[in-house]
Amino acid sequence: MAVRILNLITILCSIIPVWTAAQCDPHMDPPKSQRVANYKMAVTLDTMQKSVTGSQTLTWVNPSPDTIRELRFYMYVNAFKNSRSTFLNGTREIFGRHYKDRERQEWGYITVNKITRDASELTDSIKYIQPDNDNSFDQTVMSVTLEKPVMPYDSIDLIMDFITKLPKLLVRTGYSRDHFYHVTHWFPQIGVYEKDTLGKWGWNCHQFYRLTEFYADFGNYDVVIEAPDNLVIDGTGCRMDSTSTRSGWQKLHYRAEDVIDFAWVAYPYFHRIEDDWNGVQIRLLTPEEHLNLVPRFLHAVKSALSYLEAYIGPYPYASITMMDPPVHALSSGFMEYPAYITLGSFRYFPRGLRTIESLVMHEFTHQYFMAVVATNEKEEPWLDEGFVTYFEDRIMEATYGQEASLIDFLGYKISNSAFTRSEYTDLPDPSFSPLAVPAWELQNSSKGLFYSKTATVLKTMENLVGSATMDTIIQRYYERWKFRHPKGHDFKRVVSEVLSRDGKEALLGGVDRFFDQLIYGTGVCDYMVEEIENERVWTDAGLFGEYQNFRFEEGRPGEEWRGVVTVRRLGEVILPVDIMVQYEDGSSEMISWDGVDSYYRFEFEKSVRSCHIDPERKLMIDIDFLNNSLTLEDNKWPVRKMGVRSIYWILNLLQSLAFLV
Amino acid sequence: MIRTGILKGWRLWKLSLVLYIVELVMALFIGLQVMSAIEDGISGSMDIERFMDSFDYSTYHDFLVLHGDVFDLLIFQLKLFIPIFFIVNIFTTAGILYCGKINSSRWRDFWKGGSIHFFGLLVNFILYSFLFLIWSLLWVGPMIWLVPYYLETVGCEACLFSTLIIMIPIYLFGLMYLINASAVSKCQLIEKDISNLYAFGHGLGYSLRRMVKLSGIFLFFFLALMVILTIYNVFVRSLGLTTPTLIILTAIVQQFIIWLRVLFRMMYLYSVQAMHFKKVSNE
Fold this sequence. Notes:
The structure holds two protein chains of two kinds. Chain A is built from ten helices and 36 strands. Chain A is of the alpha+beta class. Chain A is 24% helix and 32% strand. Chain B is built from ten helices and no strands. Chain B has helices spanning 2-11, 13-42, 50-53, 57-67, 69-102, 107-154, 157-191, 196-209, 211-239, 244-282. The two termini of chain B are 18 Å apart. The relative contact order of chain B is 0.12. The interface between A and B is large, with 59 and 68 residues.
């Protein structure tokens, strides 16, 4: 009963903001992007067939000086057509779900039935190609040959009739029980025609790999969805109007401008909760069972909106839709689409475990790094996932405090950034790959690398150059590249510009070296204090004066002491570090080391008690903090404390077992 | 019965002290190795100071990543230790119950009781371990199966939670019943020269008939322990282990609590024995 009353209060509280919720106006004036790929769609969700059928008019602008005779489209849903697709090939399970025993109707596909340009049909010119490998079973990239080419900077209108048969949900897209439909990467989406790293124009339209995400051009989406009216539907963009059509059906009109994709969801048992933050409409879809979590979701997204506006720039879209899937559709969660993010939660998640909040913040930050700064998630995943994880850490720590931002439970406190770092140092071999590699080159460990190592590298950069300078870097990068497709070297250029302007390049040990080591290289960072030696300074010894008047002085240890500290660089990564030296007389000194030599001895005219490399833990990328310091002080109490605790727990365990006897 | 058990346990407190010391020695064997492993790994590091003030995840994590293999050995040793612990405990339990039976606190009687009844109680332990295992499989198995069933098939988190809220107490109640039955069987074996199978059956039957009283005895000592542990946790939380004095003080309190656990277990066994002895006398 108490739970019901709580739910009722939550619902009432969530209804109240509806009256004051911001209006959703998708119109961007002036346009924010080049609007290369614009879609106008009218589709119907067939809940019997589990399919979406309809037609789209694509208006595509040739952004290049090339004359284009072939168009390429992503056909992502064909990844779920059979087990030989590049996505599924070589594995029986996706995220722990076995899929090979699926029945016929549980597989998915997308097909274009008809494609016309100016009334002339191009359907016969459709073929599936495999630009990345020889897997002829893979049909995730479609090629259409044009009879009449698209001239430089000219535009083309294509009308495409298509059917998307949704697969039973495996990951991200598909249907689940009780008429849950997650309709993402679901239509024939044109690839990106752009310059490659050598400056040559061409299609960037990769096949769909298991570990790759998405990459598309900006444009406007005008989508009319017809579906049974018992379904609660929402997704990218603003709902312009909704009407009843035939009996039991609804027609919803959505519009989104300057976005790179359009995704939506339908489920009869969603509660739709509206709120707003500074004119941004917040829409939350959540099943009844998760209504107790609504305040947590809303607080997290508002914290993210507030933080990112302050430190990067205003959120550019009129709305953000958050979809919290029912537990049977959990694999549709944990994803990001323009102005639409998907979460993942459980009803009884304790407040002190803030993974729900960190997930909201992570996925929302993708609106900045993926949706607006639209990097290539396939070729350079570190640029979106890494930046997002770095900001997730920052927002979490700004919102919930540095010490216990992620976990504050049963006396255990873990910060988000410490956890992120541990995901990187947990890698079986932290030097197994550079950061800047395409996602498809990695089979596993991509999270520890793309997400966590990048975030840790960026945190290290922030600590070295200072928070204000780091904010300037990020803001300039964002301002310059919003609604465009930057590459890794574009970010590096911004870093270089800002640091050289402020004369701070040396703080990173040189921007080129920093990037070569930590982004494009595989080395690890590990500094160590190897040894502290103290010895008395001997008095002068030998024969002094002239012959016949020699004065012999016998050498003996004097009153003064001399300390020698040996430090080592165990990893390949070279970074400038601070070293804190504490002397026996109680004084201390901070010295700087360029960290270049693999072995260095510092000599001091005093006896040294302890030495600590990087005492402020600026180099978060250092894989072993424990060997960063050495003390001659005999402090056994921390060890004793752990020993006392372990003995107590062992005795408790034994006593509990004694009841069995 | 509880009063009798408490008084008898209190009178034989020296026995509980010996049992506690035996267990402490065993725990020290492992615990000192943990200390030594930590000392070898990171004692020179200044980061270890962070453990004094709070739980520092990065220090803890780096230690586990770089020196974590030490714990594999310790866990292996603990696995070897547990059977030894059981054997020692079977002997001491036999000694305790025998001393309770003849109302003696002499060491000679303790050793005598342990020697005479060791094998009887060992067989009893094996029989009841088998039952504990079956009971656990009967409940834990379905619980593990229910998680995906409710989440994937039924799609109802509240249903899963409600089911577990019902199942877990039933499971724990069953465990309590078996612990009581095992205690009764042990008393029976000490009191009469009967076969293990008879004592086993008698324990199960008697505990079923006297479920309320026996459960009351068990819950009394269990709740008393919980109260003490809660007070201890509040004490540790509020003080923290941040200075050598507090560490020493906490260590003393911890050991006192462990001794109380040993003593409570003795008192529980004596309470059951007193109740059972009354029944036997009546017969």
